[in-house]
Design goal:
mainly alpha
Length: 200
């Protein structure tokens, strides 16, 4: 005889399975939200706790304040090590992979003509795809620098300072010309390359 209990709409084994699935996915949802919030609002040192060192400031300037180049290098190294991919990550292979990803990134803009800053006419899906391709390029670049033993953050800062000498504001402001085409700069390339160490 069928029970008249109103809660007996599912056999007990099925009810237990659905409850287990509910708590499992609830836990997964909490984990995802926690990770997203943690990534978007990373913990920072409060005033009075020693402040940021010069190294911390440099990392924040290079990495955007949330993720540093060093952290990306560690994650990429761990990712490759876990899959035994170090054997494939030679400088040549990584460079070719990087070029391939730049090609895929270029395809997104192909035939679109000039697009305004911020991509206001792009859909959420298009921007998400762009972010993925940009990330592929960045990750391969970081991995290539790591394998070659190049401190990418220091090299980038050094290059910015060197470009500052090649393109002084008073000579290139508002101009898209290369520094060799700028007046009074044509004969200074040798000087720039030789005095750069004095400014860095």
């Amino acid at each position: 005889m069928q029970s008249s209990r109103p809660w007996n709409f599912l056999p007990l084994p099925d009810l237990s399975r659905y409850l287990f699935r509910f708590w499992f996915w609830a836990g997964e949802l909490f984990r995802i939200v926690f990770c997203v919030v943690g990534a978007r609002f990373p913990a920072r040192k409060m005033k009075g706790e020693g402040g940021n060192s010069d190294e911390d400031s440099r990392k924040e300037a290079v990495g955007g304040g949330g993720v540093t180049i060093e952290e990306l290098q560690r994650k990429m190294a761990e990712f490759a090590r876990e899959r035994n991919w170090d054997q494939f990550h030679s400088p040549r292979n990584l460079l070719l992979a990087l070029v391939g990803e730049v090609g895929e990134l270029s395809e997104i803009f192909q035939w679109k003509g000039e697009v305004p800053k911020g991509l206001p006419d792009w859909s959420v899906a298009e921007k998400e795809h762009l972010g993925e391709e940009l990330s592929d390029v960045l990750l391969y670049l970081v991995r290539l620098a790591d394998i070659c033993g190049v401190d990418l953050g220091e090299a980038a800062l050094r290059k910015v300072k060197k470009n500052g000498l090649k393109y002084p504001v008073e000579r290139c402001k508002g101009s898209s010309k290369k520094y060799t085409q700028l007046a009074s700069v044509v004969n200074e390339e040798f000087r720039v390359d030789n005095v750069i160490d004095e400014y860095i």
